[in-house]
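Problem 12. The chain below contains 133 residues. Write out its predicted structure in token notation.
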Amino acid sequence: MKVESWLFLGGIFFFTPVGIVYGIMVDWKEPVGFLSLFMLSGLSMMIGWYLLHTARRVGARPEDRVDGDIHENAGTIGLFSPWSWWPLFLGFGAATGFAGLALGWWVLYIGAGLAVIGLVGWVYEYSRGAHAH
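Solution.
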């Protein structure tokens, strides 16, 4: 994970100067561009710090070592639900909500409601019905 963490931490040294240059070029009058670049630098710092902290806590993975073999990483990596329709429903709600930013606030509220229903359904998918444990 150290490679990933240093890649994200390297984003600080890219996005911060780009944000400063962009701010100078627009005479600091257009706040969305340079502020988004500064926030992207902060996000890059947070993700890089988290990955570096996790790498120190977990240790080297097989893909981080030179002598690592493929079979060392075999097994179940995560839990995936190929039959689940909730991600599609959540994506439809999010798309409707984002379209509401352009079309009107009332569409945003409909999309937010659909997204909340989709998120709750996805979270509690294994707590009810045929797949309850």
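Discussion. The mean pLDDT is 90. Students who got a different answer should revisit the alignment rule from Section 12.3.
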